[in-house]
Write a structure and sequence with these properties.
The chain is of the alpha/beta class. Helices cover 39% and strands 20% of the residues. The protein is globular, with a radius of gyration of 23 Å. It binds 1,4-dihydronicotinamide adenine dinucleotide and magnesium ion.
Length: 497
């Protein structure tokens, strides 16, 4: 087991107590408290981090408000603003190894995956969004005003930033989720208070340093690590925050909506999923079988869009199940820093307990594991990639988001029934279709109630395409031009000439 060498900068970074970023300064929590973040491949403490709570959030919101209302930020031209955002992407790539290492140590994902996917996707998001800064155009029109006959008018719209934005992100793609939220917020000219997940604050704190280095003015980005129930809740409820953007569980998403009601701040939510992934017998099985496996096992199943309900048409069911089971068994489970690791540990003890409880529940309910089904007997939070069959539509493993490497499969007969079965979930984040029949693929793409439908692929997250959910998978869209809607206000200016 060759271990990827640790970047010395990373050792230095984790050795020191990590402060929070408020008003351009790195400061301890006002309470003086810190919390521990763990390496999930060992369960050992990785670093100590300042623990923000309500008081720190309040301070950060004040700093953001000042930066938004009075700082140089609002006076930059869109071109200048866009160039600063672009520079963040450049700095991410210049520090790719260091950031990938931090991500692996804190989250558990394989270093090679962090390096190939998380880091360049994060950079690209800033690059893509930077171009929008100069394209937030309004429109001009000539309105019709029937009760003022003979009058003349000039009317136009302006796209303006929303103001101070609170952002609360999860631990599954720590840096990338920060990029998804910060990129559009900054390109549109907002100021931000970002709370990373308590499980994985490190890469985001390093990003904070790079954001200052890029030249983003002090106070425009504030980063307050801490727990959800304290720091997160205070941010969602804060009366001087104009918008809150959240990614995480549907359960907490509902709490965010309640907390936001106090000042009716704008809310965008990217929540859970239980996405259907559908394989037809006419699919290219060389792609569909590993594709069906990795739709769930990528990022250890800790992916909101994971394709965790596998539908296979009856005549191909046994072959696809056998192929996916073989693929699952071939995955090397180990520490993220080991070069031959395909799948790392789950992020935390809590997730480990949650996922292993589902494995238990699945067995009790009568589902059968044809691959995996157990935790690994070793330190750290490792669970085998698992494929369950003999599933029924009312089983908890079929209905509930597990957020671990657990894939459940069912055969289907009838194409007409399929869309109904696939849509039979409170979620609507993603779906996958594997077939060589383009007509079938596009018909299903239309029928599936999901924010993203993949055809002959899965887990692709380009900055150009909007991402978000139907039903209880959320409100609004991230990425693509669509996200700009949720980070701007449109102002109508009406002039009588
Ligand atoms: P969570 O929803 O509790 O945490 C996500 C973020 O929200 C974290 O930053 C957390 O500190 C914050 N948070 C928690 N409670 C809050 C509150 N009352 N007010 C404001 N912010 C709060 O997710 P958790 O507990 O880490 O994982 C539980 C389950 O949630 C997972 O098993 C998975 O099913 C789902 N989940 C979904 C994600 C997605 O990408 N859609 C990401 C993470 C978790
Ligand atoms: Mg939670």
């Amino acid at each position: 087991m060759a271990i990827v060498e640790l970047d010395p900068l990373v050792r230095e970074f984790t050795a020191k107590e990590r402060p929070m970023l408020i008003g351009g300064e790195w400061v301890p929590a006002m309470s003086g408290n810190t919390f521990e973040t763990y390496d999930p491949s060992t369960g050992e403490v990785l670093a100590h981090v300042a623990e923000g709570d309500k008081a720190d959030i309040d301070r950060a919101v004040k700093a953001a408000r000042r930066a938004f209302d009075e700082g140089p930020w609002g006076k930059l031209t869109p071109s200048e603003r866009g160039r600063l955002v672009h520079r963040i992407g450049d700095l991410i790539m210049e520090h790719a190894d260091e950031l990938a290492t931090l991500e692996t140590l804190d989250n558990g994902k394989p270093f090679a995956v962090a390096k190939a996917a998380d880091i360049p996707l994060s950079a690209d998001l800033f690059w893509y969004m930077s171009g929008w800064a100069t394209k937030l155009d309004g429109r001009t029109t000539e309105p019709h005003v029937p009760y003022k006959p003979g009058s003349e008018w000039h009317a136009y719209t302006r796209r303006e930033p929303v103001g101070v934005v609170g952002q609360i992100i999860p631990w599954n793609f720590p840096l990338l989720m920060a990029a998804w939220k910060l990129g559009p917020a900054l390109s549109c000219g907002n100021a931000v208070v970002l709370k990373p997940a308590e499980q994985t604050p490190l890469s985001v704190l390093r990003l904070g340093e790079l954001i200052l280095e890029a030249g983003i003015p002090p106070g425009v980005v504030n980063i307050v690590p801490g727990y959800g129930e304290t720091a997160g809740a205070a941010l969602a409820a804060h009366p001087d925050v104009d918008k809150v953007a959240f990614t995480g569980s549907t359960e907490v998403g509902k709490l965010i909506v309640e907390a936001a009601a106090g000042n009716l701040k704008k809310v965008s939510l990217e929540l859970g999923g239980k996405s259907p992934n559908i394989v037809f017998p006419d699919a290219d099985m060389e792609k569909a079988i590993p594709g069906a496996a990795m739709a769930t096992f990528f990022n250890h199943g800790q992916c909101c869009i994971a394709g965790t309900r596998l539908f296979v048409q009856k005549s191909a069911f046994d072959d696809v199940v056998a192929g996916v089971a073989d693929h699952a068994k071939s995955l090397k489970v180990g520490p993220g820093m080991a070069e031959d690791t395909d799948m790392g540990p789950l992020v935390s003890k809590e997730q480990f307990e949650r996922v292993t409880a589902y494995l238990q529940k699945g067995a009790t309910e009568g589902a059968r594991a044809v691959a995996g089904g157990r935790a690994l007997e070793r330190p750290g939070y490792f669970v085998e990639p698992t494929l369950l069959v003999d599933t029924e539509p009312d089983m908890s493993i079929w209905r509930e988001e597990i957020f671990g490497p657990v894939l459940a499969a069912t055969p289907f007969d009838d194409l007409d029934e399929l869309a109904r079965q696939a849509n039979d979930t409170p979620y609507g984040l993603g779906a996958g279709v594997w077939t060589q029949d383009i007509s079938k693929a596009h018909k299903l793409a239309k029928l599936l109630k999901a924010g993203t439908v993949y055809v002959n692929t899965y887990n692709i997250f380009p900055a150009e395409m909007p991402f978000g959910g139907y039903k209880e998978s959320g409100w609004g869209r991230e990425m693509g031009p669509e996200v700009l809607e949720s980070y701007t206000e449109t102002k109508s200016v009406i002039c009588e000439l």
